[in-house]
Design goal:
Elements: H1 13-26, H2 36-47, H3 51-67, H4 73-81, H5 84-97, H6 105-114
Protein name: Co-chaperone DjlA N-terminal domain-containing protein
InterPro entries: DjlA_N
Pfam family, one: TerB
């Protein structure tokens, strides 16, 4: 039985985006170097959460990510059902938490593609 991905309650946006981040981290994308602590920090920053609230949310995101079938279908669904400005804002929080954001343009493109953003979305981020 497959979950119904036909709609997304706006209140579930942080969970959907966090699950996407967890999936990205599980791909072992070395240049981006996302781990649980960095995902927690991005969730806390974007959604004004305490450390423990962010950790709890990330654990819920991990459960969602584990339930989603493999492949890029989930990324496409998030891109279709979550506003671009929400996807962009959270992806930028993740980018800021990445270990070497300015060092690898491939990591920037991968992050942008994963969140359904233009591949050039992070061109200026990290070059402050």
């Amino acid at each position: 039985m497959r979950p119904n991905y036909g709609w997304l309650d706006p209140a579930d946006t942080p969970l959907a985006l966090g699950a996407l981040a967890v999936r990205l981290a599980r791909q072992d994308l070395a240049p981006l170097a996302l781990d649980s602590a960095r995902i927690d920090a991005a969730l806390a920053h974007r959604y004004d959460l305490t450390r423990s609230e962010a950790e709890e949310m990330r654990r819920a995101c991990e459960e969602v990510a584990a339930a989603v079938p493999p492949g890029s279908g989930y990324s496409r669904l998030v891109a279709q059902h979550v506003a671009a400005d929400e996807r962009d804002a959270f992806a930028r929080c993740l980018w800021r938490e990445a270990r070497r954001p300015a060092a690898d343009p491939d990591a920037a493109r991968t992050l942008a593609r994963t969140f359904g953003l233009p591949e050039t979305a992070f061109g200026a981020v990290g070059r402050a």
